[in-house]
Write a structure and sequence with these properties.
Length: about 210
């Protein structure tokens, strides 16, 4: 009898749940939050809260659940923790996600005086680069770790890999298209800054 007709064992079941949760965290939730920011900010100044709600309230629990399930899967597999690239990347993703959340809150509520030419603060660029880096680091588990941790009794279906690849291509394509709206965004941000500066000057007491 082919081993692929056997039901998943407890280790495989735990690993599969971990994979599904991590998928929705890093390839649905976070990209959705990124695209919300990329598109909404070109049309409205009220983009922050939809972006924050998706990245924190929706994605946050999934990130922590995915990490916990991965930790439990490693225990069940009898492996050392953080001993291979996937596990190290998982820990890095958790740390990077937390840094991203705190950095986003800092950017929103703390305004530093220094700006790059064009009017943007340096932490804004760091926040964007960190968010995209998190999404880039999510490929290793599906392609390599499943076979390593489970013994590849049930290899990952090629349709799953194609679906994953389709999601990745769609996300980056939408992000690239959104970059075409960048001139509109920068023009809108410059107008908002001018309005704030003029309002501030109008309210300076003449003493």
């Amino acid at each position: 009898m082919s081993t692929t007709t056997l039901p998943l064992n407890p280790l495989e079941s735990k690993a599969r749940i971990h994979a599904h949760v991590a998928f929705f965290a890093f390839l649905v939730g976070l990209p959705l939050g990124v695209l919300i920011a990329r598109y909404l900010r070109t049309f409205t100044s009220s983009w922050f809260w939809p972006h924050a709600i998706v990245n924190f309230l929706f994605t946050g629990p999934l990130v922590f659940a995915g990490f916990t399930l991965g930790y439990q899967t490693t225990n069940m597999g009898g492996e050392f923790h953080f001993s291979d690239p996937h596990q190290k990347v998982g820990l890095a993703l958790l740390v990077m996600y937390l840094a991203q959340v705190f950095l986003g809150a800092f950017i929103h509520w703390v305004k530093l005086p220094f700006r790059f030419p064009g009017g943007r603060h340096p932490q804004n660029y760091l926040h964007a680069i960190l968010g995209l880096a998190i999404i880039v680091l999510t490929h290793y588990g599906l392609w390599i770790e499943w076979a390593f941790i489970t013994g590849n009794i049930h290899p990952v279906n090629s349709r799953c890999k194609h679906f994953w690849l389709g999601i990745v291509v769609a996300m980056w394509s939408l992000y690239a298209i959104g970059l075409g709206l960048l001139p509109r965004q920068l023009k809108q941000e410059a107008a908002t800054r001018r309005a704030k500066d003029e309002g501030y000057k109008d309210n300076v007491p003449l003493i």
